[in-house]
Amino acid sequence: MHSALPRRRFLQGAALAGGLVAAGGAAAVGEEAAQAAEPFEGQHQAGIIAPTSPHAAFVSLDVTATGRAELADLFQTITEQARLLTSGVTPPDAGPASPPLDNGIIGPSAPAGGLTVGLAVGSSLFDSRFGLASRKPAKLKPMRTFPNDNLDPARCHGDLMLQLRADDQDTVLHALRQIARNTRGGMQVRWRMDGFTSKPRPSGAPRNLLGFKDGIANPDVNKASVRENLIWVGDGEPAWAAGGTYQVVRIIRMLVEFWDRVSIDEQEQMFGRRKDTGAPLTGNKETDPIQYGNDPKGYGIPLSSHIRLANPRTPQTEKNRILRRGYNYDLGTDSNGNLDMGLIFSCFQQDITRQFEVTQARLIDEPLVDYISPVGGGYFFMLPGIRDSGDHFGKGMLA
Q1: 78-96 pLDDT, tens per residue?
Q2: Separation between Cα atoms, residue 289 and residue 291, nearest integer Å
Q3: Is 169 exposed, middle or buried (CB count within 10 Å of its CB: 0-12, 13-18, 19+)?
Q4: pLDDT of residue 91
Q5: Cα dihedral 141, 146, 151, 153 sign
Q6: Which pLDDT score, from 0 to 100, does residue 145 have?
Q7: Average of per-residue pLDDT across 49-67
Q8: CA 244, CA 233: separation in Å to the nearest integer?
Q9: Cis-peptide, bond into residue 202, ω within 30° of zero
Q10: SS3 sequence of the chain
C-alpha cells in the first residue's frame, strides 16, 4: 500500500482539474461532447435513477490519505475531475516539456460520451482514521455473507466505491486513468470489475449471460412515491446524507458451462420466465402483469422460481423492492481453464436490511444457486449530489 503524499503535492491534482475547467471556458466544446454530456450538478448523483449505460466500471478503493484534511482534499479532487470529465471540455496543451494533462486515449477533444461518475462510501471509512464515526449513515454496515456465497476477501468491501458509466469502454477507461493519476497517494484500488450491458435482442430488457432478460420488473422510478419510499434515504439519517441512497454491489459468477447443458424447460422453470420473449410463464410478453393470487400452488410459475421468490408481489413485500442496475462481465478463464463470466449486480435502496437483505434471504437455496456463485462485492452509501460549483463529494459529511 502506498503512503499518502504530502498534502501540497496531492493538491496538484485539484489544481490541474481547476485549470482545465477554467480553460474550458475559452476552449470550444466539441459538438459530440456537448450532445453526450450528462448533467453533473443536482440533488442526487447521476447514474442512479438513469437506465444502465453500455459500459461501466466498479472500482473499490482503500483510502491512503492521512487525516481528515487530506481526505477532504481527496474528495475535492475527485469532484473536480468528475466535473471536468463529464463536461467534455477540451484539455489545454501543457507544452512539450510537460506531461500532457490528458491521457489522450479518446482523442484530443476528450468528449463526455455520456459519462457519469458516482462516488459512494463504505462502512470502513468511518473507523478511527478520520474521526467520522458520529457521521456514519445509520444503516451502513459491512456486507454480510449469505449461505450460498463463496466470497473472496480480496474482492469484498472497500472505503470507497467509484462507479463510472459511459457509452463506450474507452470513455470509462479514460476517466478511470485521469482520476487515478490525480489522486495518486490519496487512494488505492482494492478491486475492480468492468461491465457491459447487452443490446436488447430483439427488443425490451437486455439479457444476462445466462440468456435471460434482466431487470424487467424494476419499480417505476418515474413515480415520486417510489423514489421517496424505496430509493432516497429518509428519517433517522444524518442531515448531511439527504439526497443519498444505499448501494449494494455483488459479483456473481455464472457457471455457464454447466448451465448451457440444462434443458430449456428446466431453465425457464428456475427463472419463471420464457427465455426467448422474457414473458412470465403465465403470459405472452415480458411486460405482462403477474398475478400470483391466481396461481397459489405454483402450477403456472413455480413457487421456487427466481422471480417469485425475489418479488412475491404482495402488499407486504412492496417495501422490500430494490432498483436493479446490473452489468455483465467477462474475465476470460480461471486457473482451471473454465470460463469466468457473470453479473455485476448493483442495486439502490433506502434501507439495505429492509430491502436487499430481505430479498436475498428469500433466495437462499433457490434452484438457481447450482449455477451461480456470489464471489465478491460490498455495501456502500452513495453520497448526495453536487449542489453547486462550491460543493464537493462528502462536503457535508466532513463539515
Answers
A1: 999 999 999 998 888 889 8
A2: 7
A3: middle
A4: 84
A5: positive
A6: 98
A7: 97
A8: 6
A9: yes
A10: CCCCCCHHHHCHHHHHHHHHHHHHHHCCCCHHHHHHCCCCECCCCCCCCCCCCCEEEEEEEEECCCHHHHHHHHHHHHHHHHHHHCCCCCCCCCCCCCCCCCCCCCCCCCCCCCCEEEEEECHHHHCCCCCCHHHCCCCCCCCCCCCCCCCCHHHECCCEEEEEEECCHHHHHHHHHHHHHHCCCCEEEEEEEEEECCCCCCCCCCECCCCCECCCCCCCCCCHHHHHHHHCCCCCCCHHHCCCEEEEEEEEEECHHHHCCCCHHHHHHHHCECCCCCCECCCCCCCCCCCHHHCCCCCCCCCCCHHHHHCCCCHHHHHHCCEECCEEEEEEECCCCCEEEEEEEEEEECCCHHHHHHHHHHCCCCHHHHCEEEEEEEEEEECCCECCCCCCCCHHHHC
Q: Which three cell numbers stand for residue 253?
A: 459468477
More confident of the two residues 25 and 71: 71
Cell numbers linked to 280 = 412470465
Calpha distance 175→172 (Å, rounded): 5
Instruction: Answer yes or no: is pLDDT of 138 > 90.
Output: yes
Q: Which grid coordinates belong to 215?
A: 431487470
Per-residue confidence band for 31, with pLDDT thresholds at 50, 70 and 90: very low
Pick the closest to residue 11 from 187, 188, 183, 178 (CA basis).
Answer: 183
What was the pLDDT predicted at 179?
Answer: 98
How big is the chain, counted in residues? Answer: 399
| Cell reading at 110 | 476528450
Question: Burial, 59: exposed, middle or buried (Cβ in 10 Å; 0-12, 13-18, 19+)?
Answer: buried
The pLDDT value recorded for residue 11 is 52
**10 contacts: CB under 8 Å, gap ≥ 6:** 4, 65, 70, 73, 74, 77, 183, 185, 186
Q: Are 382 and 45 in contact (CB under 8 A)?
A: yes
pLDDT digits (tens, 9 = 90+) for 334-345: 999 999 999 999
What grid cell was written down for 11? 493538491
Burial class (CB within 10 angstroms; exposed 0-12, middle 13-18, buried 19+) of 28: exposed
pLDDT value at residue 90: 84
Cα–Cα separations (whole angstroms), residue 212 to 52, 274, 275, 277, 279: 17, 8, 5, 9, 10
